[in-house]
Amino acid sequence: MKIMPDQLRRLATALLESRGVEPQAAALQADLLVEAELRGLPSHGLQRLPLLLSRLEKGLANGRVQGACRWSRQAFLDVDGERGLGPVVLMNAMRRLKQNLPDTGIAVAAIRNANHIGMLAYYAEAAARDGLVAIVLSTSEALVHPFGGTEAMLGTNPIAIGVPAGDRPFVLDLATSVVSMGKIRNHALRGVPIPPGWAVDADGRPTLDPVAAQGGAIAPFGGAKGYGLGLAVELLVAALAGSALSPDVHGTLDDHHPANKGDLLVLIDPAAGAGAAPALTAYLDSLRLSRPFDAARPVAVPGDGARCRRASAMAEGITLPQPLFEQLMALEAA
C-alpha cells in the first residue's frame, strides 16, 4: 500500500513522543526513518520503529538526551551517547564539530553508548549540502563471516562519504557486507527469498531463506576486499570510540541490551585545502554524460539513484507492507 510521506512522519513522530521522546528529537528520528523509505532503503526505515519504541519503553533508549560531549583534543570530540537516540546524538556531535572547523579545518567525533544511527547517507548528505566533506562509520553486532569463513565475526560496518558538488552532492553509502541484516529482515517481512550469495545458514551452508539467514552469517561484499574494508572499519571505530568489538556488540537488533556499538564522524572543511567545488561538480556531470553501456540506463553518480527514488516517492507515496502499517497503527492505538 502507498502512503504519503507526511502522514508517515506524523505517525512516527506521534509514536515516539508518546514514549517520552522530546518533540524535536522525535521529529529528527522520524525524519530519518521516513527518508530511508523515500530513498528506497526500507531496511533502515519504518520497520525499525517498533523495536525502537520497545527500547524506549524498557529504558534502553532515552529520548531526552543529546549525548555528553568532551573535547579531548582540539579537533577530537569524545561522545558518550548516554543511551540517546542515534540520530539525535550524532547530529548534536556534528553541530559541535562545525564550531571548531574554522580553526582546525578537520574534526572527529567518536561516539559510544548511542542507539542505532540508521541510514548513514542522511548525515553525509546533510554535511555535503553545508559545503563540508563528511566520513561516517558505524559498527554492529557480529553478522558477517570473514572471507573464507562461515561464522559471523564482524559487523556489517557501513561507511558513508559525502562531498559537496552543487545541488547534487556525491553521497556514497554502503555496508561492507553484501547487504545489511535489515534487508534480510525486510525480505522475511515480505515473505520473499533472498538472492544467492547473500548469506549462509547456521551450519555454514548457502541459503535463500531470509529466516535461516538471520541465524547464520552474511557474506562480505567483494570477497577479500569487503572483508578487509569491514575489518578496517571495525578496528578504527573500536580504537577511537572505545566501543565493543562486534562479537560482543548488542542493542541494534534487540530490545534486551543497551547498544554498545560505536560510531565515527569526520568533518572536513574543503576551504582548508586547495580543491575547487566547481571542478568537482563539472567532473561528476561529465561522468553522468559519459557513454553508457545501455542507452536506456545513463551513467549515475552515487547519490543520484536515491534522489531519483525520493522524488518519485514524494509524488506517489511510499510503498509500505500492509502488516507493518497495521502494526504501526496498532501501536498508535495502544
Describe the protein.
The chain has 334 residues and is α+β, with helices and mostly antiparallel strands. The chain has eleven helices and twelve strands. It has helices at residues 5-17, 23-38, 49-57, 86-104, 121-129, 181-190, 210-214, 224-241, 277-288, 304-316, 322-333; strands at 2-3, 68-73, 76-80, 106-112, 133-138, 159-163, 170-174, 199-200, 206-207, 217-218, 262-268, 318-319. A seven-stranded mixed beta sheet has the order 2-3-4-11-5-6-7, sandwiched between helices. A three-stranded antiparallel beta sheet has the order 9-8-10. The protein is globular.
Report the portion of residues in β strands: 15-25%
Mean pLDDT: 95
Ranges where pLDDT stays below 50 over 5 or more residues in a row are: none
Quaternary organisation: single chain
Radius of gyration: 20 Å
Number of helices: 11
User: Main sheet, how many strands, which sense, barrel?
Assistant: 7 strands, mixed
Give the end-to-end Cα distance, rounded to a whole number of Å: 22 Å
Helix fraction, binned, reads 40-55%
Q: Can you count the beta strands?
A: 12
Order of strands across the biggest sheet?
A: 2-3-4-11-5-6-7
Order of helices and strands: EHHHEEHEHEEEHEEHEHEHHEH
Derived from helix and strand composition plus strand pairing, the structural class reads alpha+beta
Shape: globular
In short:
The protein is an alpha+beta fold and 334 residues long. The protein is built from eleven helices and twelve strands. The model has no long low-confidence stretch (mean pLDDT 95).
